[in-house]
Design a protein that fits this description.
mainly alpha; Four Helix Bundle (Hemerythrin (Met), subunit A); 2 domains
Length: 291
């Protein structure tokens, strides 16, 4: 790992941006924004929405920064393009930035209801457990599965709303969470295996990780359809049809552009498609159930 004594400001800023994992954080920002707007619909309280979104975004950035901080030695060998490995950011700077994001998160959480604090802190605990211990084990998928449903629960708690159908977040969130974890692990599968990590994706291998990830997305969409079909949870038909159609388009696109036999670079594209599919499925389900 290189450390530079003199680094141009532009390089430092680029390093900090990369350290925050901007693309995954952007997807999280989009997701929590959708749920915050749904939680305050039809009269969005913009100040509350901004607090909900801002606190969650600060937490996601903190988790991302600490992730790279704890992985800095391994990244120096396996991922030399990372900002800490390249010396764009020093470990001390990364540590300070991570703690600053946590402080910002707590400041933004303060005006929100206590239940929102509790859910947010639980999400943070899962994220940090993933960074410290669980990322290199098959339990990493379970952490994702537990954390994902907390995002809409947090948004609704932040808005002071309780909706009975949120209980169905548990099975749907579990399916989407494990699928998202597999997609997130696939780009680094070989490096993880070489370093001795036993993530769920490493245990399954490339081909089965793609297969299981796709099946979990399909099962989550089918579960939503079956809930509507049986009358357990009525969803506005037009929204349901749109959600399932968009999900099908995303799945077909994923099958065409990505897969175990496609170039390794497409695995990152696969992660983005899976993330977008999760937002479409969960967001569409919420909209259809609420209106």
């Amino acid at each position: 790992m290189r450390e530079r004594t003199k680094r141009p400001l532009k390089e430092r800023l680029r390093g900090f941006v990369q350290l925050c994992h901007p693309v995954p954080v952007l997807f999280h920002l989009l997701g929590v924004t959708i749920f915050a707007l749904l939680a305050t619909w039809p009269h969005p309280a913009w100040q509350v929405v901004l607090l909900i979104v801002g606190a969650h975004t600060a937490m996601q950035m903190a988790i991302a920064i600490f992730n790279d901080y704890y992985d800095r030695k391994r990244d120096a060998v396996g991922k030399p393009e990372k900002p800490l490995a390249r010396g764009l950011v020093t470990p001390r700077e990364a540590l300070v930035a991570g703690w600053l994001m946590l402080v910002l998160m707590l400041v933004l959480l303060f005006p929100l209801p206590p239940l929102a604090w509790l859910i947010s802190l639980l999400y943070l605990a899962l994220g940090m457990a993933y960074n410290l211990e669980l990322k290199s084990t098959p339990l990493s998928g379970i952490v994702f599965a537990l954390a994902l449903p907390l995002i809409p629960l947090y948004a609704f708690a932040g808005a002071g709303r309780s909706v009975p159908f949120l209980i169905w977040l548990v099975p749907i969130g579990f399916l989407l969470g494990v699928g998202l974890n597999l997609a997130n692990s696939l780009p680094d599968l070989e490096e993880d295996a070489a370093s001795g990590a036993r993530t769920l994706a490493v245990v399954l291998g490339v081909e089965r990780s793609f297969l299981v990830g796709n099946i979990l997305l399909i099962l989550s969409a089918l579960l939503i359809f079956l809930l509507h079909l049986t009358g357990i949870l009525t969803i506005q038909p037009l929204v349901l049809a749109t959600t399932l159609s968009l999900t099908a388009v995303l799945l077909v696109t994923m099958f065409v552009l990505t897969g175990a036999r496609k170039p390794r670079a497409t695995r990152t594209i696969y992660f983005y498609f899976v993330t977008l599919a999760c937002i479409v499925i969960a967001g569409g389900w919420f909209i259809g159930a609420l209106i």
